[in-house]
Give the backbone structure.
Amino acid sequence: MPQATGLVDDAGTIGRFLEHLRWSVIDTAGRDLAAGDARHEEHDRTRLHVVLSGTIWLSHGDEVVELDRGDVALLPQGGPTRLSASDDARLLSATVALVDPTRP
């Protein structure tokens, strides 16, 4: 099997690549979740979640991730998602799409 050459593995190269991506925001929603609240979502587009305060547990497929204030989750495939708050939390969510996904 041929060996891959020229692999990109440094943050600078990834940063330069990300600078070329342009996103369009399709919709946004702010949510307050009280401790113990859970919200179920199902989307067929890319979703972005930003925790503005508190702690959120995000379940997506077999993955469960704890997100604290300032954390961001990008779900490129959409799909069923469960968001639950372990304490009072504020969440900003958006559906986004690449403006020109073929260019980079």
Notes: The helical segments are 11-19. The first strand starts at residue 23 and ends at 33. The longest helix spans residues 11-19.
